[in-house]
Amino acid sequence: VLTEHIRFSEPDQNLLLLDQRYLPLREETFACRTTADIVYALQTMVVRGAPAIGVTAAYGCWLALREAGDGAGWRETLSTKLAEIENARPTAVNLRWAVRRMRAVWAALGEASAAALSARWLEEARTVHREDIAANEAMGRFGADLIEDGDTVLTHCNAGALATAGHGTAVGVIYSAWQQGKRIKVIADETRPFLQGARLTAYEVHKAGIPVTVACDNACALLMQKGLVQKVVVGADRIAANGDAANKIGTFGVALIAKEFGVPFYVAAPVSTIDPETPTGDLIPIEDRTPREVTHVGDHQITPQDVPVYNFAFDVTPNRLIAGIITDQGVLRPPYTEAIAKLFKK
Ligand code: MRU
Q: Which residues are catalytic?
């Protein structure tokens, strides 16, 4: 299982990211040194997946501080840079969560010098990084109980090690079940248009030695009708206070089809992906990405010139379609409004 795809180097003062745009064909590293590099890496999806975005943002705050220096006005410069990181992508709440966490550390230090903040922030970013791996392993343990020996598990997009600091959320559940000796198989939905399933989930699950088959997104109904899928486990970018869950475009369709065929549909996400400030899913901002991802495959245009396209990057699965939300604190069951309120009271 991948662990080296997000690496921070203090001596080199950079964040090294395995560039997910080129996988599985090329394993290239993208080095971030500035706030602009971080924003670029987030927006072009050099790094993607809600928890991985959060970890990147935490180190990004440290790079922003280094860039802001310690001369007059460094605090104002830094605040502007933090806002740029926080707003790089709108849907995954982990981005806002991570930057707010770094801001809270800064606020707690009061009028501290840039040097004092730098030391404290590096520690905090490393903690965010470490905690994410631990959360995924905990989620994996809770989720693995829901997977039976012999199951074929369908997943959409990539909620694996690559989408996190390590182990993964939805795919982490699959890894944990596999490590417990359950003989499972995986179906990775292709996930148009960025192909996170075909390129990234297939890459890392195959590397882990687990049998994986790639299917076109539109094959889901047929596969379930044929009885080829026993469970669905997907990740989330933001879960509203009522349990509605935003995830990669196409997830909602998978959930509807799973309902039709009586296949349990689970969402796996750390508590940092739950947004108690957003009451219902319709209030979750949906990223609208460049048409080029749809009009082109690589450098080849596949749609007629001047025909508009939709490229919404996420959709929201209503809570009624979700059999359970697997978190690092345990599995939440409906009614989710109560379960989530109880979790945050703790
Ligand atoms: O656009 P992406 O690739 O960042 O979208 C990622 C997803 O939708 C994942 O399923 C989600 O972030 C959960 S990752 C553990």
A: 237
- Between the CA of 45 and the centroid of ligand 1 the distance, in Å, is 10
Is the CB–ligand 1 distance for residue 157 below 6 Å? yes
Q: What is the pLDDT of residue 1?
A: 61
Res. 294: pLDDT tops 80: yes
Q: In this structure, what token pair is assigned to residue 342? A: 């109880």
pLDDT beyond 80 at 3:
no
Amino acid in position 262:
G
Measured CA distances, 55 to 5, 90, 127, 152, 269 (Å): 11, 16, 9, 31, 15
Cβ–Cβ contacts within 10 Å for residue 241, how many? 19
Cα 196 to middle of ligand 1, angstroms: 8
The amino acid at residue 227 is: G
Q: Look at residue 299 in the predicted model and tell me its pLDDT.
A: 93
pLDDT tier at 346 (50, 70, 90 boundaries)? confident
CB of 165 sitting under 6 A from ligand 1? no
